Description:
By secondary structure, the chain is mostly helical.
Amino acid sequence: xxxxxxxxxxxxxSSKALCSPMLLSTFSHFSxxxxxxxxxxxxxxxxxxxxLLGSEQFIAVYLSAGVISTFVSYVAKMAAGRFEPSLGASxxxxxxxxxxxxxxxxxxxxxxxxxxxxFTAGSALKAIIAFDTAGLALGWRLFDHAAHLGGALFGMWYxxxxxxLIWKNREPLVKAWHEMRTKNAGKGGGGxxx
Length: 194
């Protein structure tokens, strides 16, 4: 198992896949219940985050969040002497949740099984961060608390600063991409112009 973990951090040129396991872990789940819970949260918050960021930026942020949260998880596990794989799906979904809660802190949320109990998005985000911080500090293994924290912090940072620092600088490229797709769609080139 030590060799398995080491391959993620090695700079050996013979190791061909440094980030691909972290990227692919963005789509990994521990169980069907884990997948169902993650897909419900993603379904609940994805339309809001796509409205905030647009579809291209959402995909870029989601994939980046999976890699970042998995990396944070590996660092935390190695620091604790635990050499086990990480699943980045929850961290990426925490990025989506944190982005929405940061941009719309007064939005009302409820738990699916307790719809009569409502709270603000800002309060929910604070509670989740407090829970995962306690879990990481106390060594709980209920969830991958480091991945959750990495994803949440990345989501908060991205909607506060990252959009301006990163995505705005890429706008000319995205605009050229949209123009190219529109031209190809008009010529019957098979492109979509949504």
